[in-house]
Amino acid sequence: MLISPPLGRSAPRLQQEKTPESELIIGRSAPFSGLSAQTAKDYQDGILAWFSEVNRNGGIHKRKLRLVSIDDNYKPARTLSNTHQLIHREKAIALIGFFGTPNSKLVIPLIEKIGIPFVAPVTGARDILNPYRPMVFNLRASYQAEIDKIINHLVRDARHRIAIFHVTDAYGIDGLRSAKIALARHNLKPVLVSSLPRNSIDTYQVAQKIVKAKANAVLSINTFATSASLSRNLSSMGSRAQLMNLSPVGIEGLQDALPGGRADGIGISQVFPFPWNRRVPVIAQYQEMMQRQKDNAHYGYTSLEGFLAARWLTAALEKAGPNPSREKLAEAFRKLGNLDLGGFKLHLKPGSNQASQLVELTFLKSQRWGP
Fold first, then answer.
1. Where would you tag: which of 6, 101, 160, 164 has the fewest CB atoms within 10 A of its CB?
2. Are 215 and 183 in contact (CB under 8 A)?
3. 367, 366, 368, 346: which is closest to 357 by C-alpha?
4. Where is 190: in which H helix or E strand?
5. Do domains 20-141+278-357 and 143-270 have the same CATH topology?
């Protein structure tokens, strides 16, 4: 039976007796409280949908999967504390789906020291991908790849006056650097660079600056709360600038924050296949597993990311054999090489643990794709 601990503020210990010989414990630290809580829970739904299916079919080499999740409220110091607990007390064989660039950056030295696979962190920052780190297995494309796709689209659409608005943390700084590189490829510079702290909705003055700079496009490297606030303020000022976001913004949160069609036309880069396209075999499987997990299942990019990360991890666990160790699991990831999950292809090559380069652009409409 798959067991996940309560998603509370604290870092609770599981009360049931543990049987290491019959379980494989996977650890996760994520923001289950705060503004990013729904996104973290959506990702978790995707993991559990696949883990539950694996356990229904006897587990991995007859060992059941157990996900141990601890809330970090998106605070890097808590992420580090949680990671120590997952490694030393819970004896996790791997860590999966950690959220955020600053959070991941802080725990990577510990990951490397201990030697535990760090699977599918929800970040595309260059500092996570380079230099090569043998224990970091990254599923999503880089922020540079996302931003290149966005800037290329804007330039083709004759939108050359591009403003950059970013959060003042490692995620935003990495995004700003990537945006300047992407613009330079077109001999362009941003007409404005502005920033605010994470989750700030005090965007009125930023919107004024964007209008004054006569920007006809804005790349927002922020959470959905900040991006939604900026969109409302730009609209109230009559701006017709194209607003673009990176994949971590979260489609569901952005649409919820901009009801009544107010999100129409906003662009978001995506690094996974369209979650409603059942013609892709892995998407059909994902939808079926989500419905088995929940009667009122909702599909989306975030839960799909969790599902694909879980599938990738279990493929490596299968390859690691009946008595896996952290080291054996890491080697199994590398030996997977080319892996087709059913229309979503992964490829690891020597000296790189970056599995996918897929980037697509989506644009919101008044209707939901649903369910």
1. 6
2. no
3. 346
4. none
5. yes
Residue where the block lists tokens 């959470």:
223
Using DSSP bridges, classify how beta strands 217-221 and 162-167 pair: parallel, antiparallel or unpaired.
Answer: parallel
Question: For residue range 48-63, what is the model confidence (pLDDT) as tens digits?
Answer: 999 999 999 999 999 9
* Backbone conformation region of residue 109, classed left if phi is above 0, alpha if psi is from -120 to 50, else beta: alpha
Checking DSSP bridges between strand 118-119 and strand 136-137, what pairing results, if any?
parallel
Q: What is the largest CA-CA distance in the chain?
A: 64
Q: Residues near 299 by Cβ (< 8 Å), separated by ≥ 6?
A: 275, 276, 286, 287, 290, 369, 370, 371
List helix spans (H) across the chain: 37-56, 76-84, 101-114, 126-129, 143-156, 170-184, 204-212, 224-236, 251-257, 281-293, 301-320, 326-336
* Termini Cα distance of the chain: 27
Instruction: Classify 51 as helix, strand or coil.
Output: helix
For the chain, domain boundaries: 20-141+278-357, 143-270
DSSP states along 54-65: HHHTT-BTTBEE
| DSSP assigned state of 22 | G
CB contact at 8 A, 188 and 154: no
- Going by C-alpha positions, the residue among 305, 303, 330, 304 that lies closest to residue 319 is 330
The helix or strand, by DSSP H or E, that contains position 185, with its residue range, turns out to be none
> What six digits make up the tokens of 17?
């007796």
CATH H superfamily, domain 143-270: Response regulator (3.40.50.2300)
In sequence order, the β-bridge partners of residue 217 are 162, 242
* Contact of 220 with 241, CB cutoff 8 Å: no
* Helix 301-320, helix 326-336: angle, nearest 10: 110
pTM over 0.85: yes
Q: CA 180 to CA 164: how far, in whole Å?
A: 9
Give the model confidence (pLDDT) of 202-241 as tens digits: 999 999 999 999 999 999 999 999 999 999 999 999 999 9
Pick the CATH number of 20-141+278-357 from 3.90.79.10, 3.40.50.2300, 3.40.50.720, 3.30.750.24: 3.40.50.2300
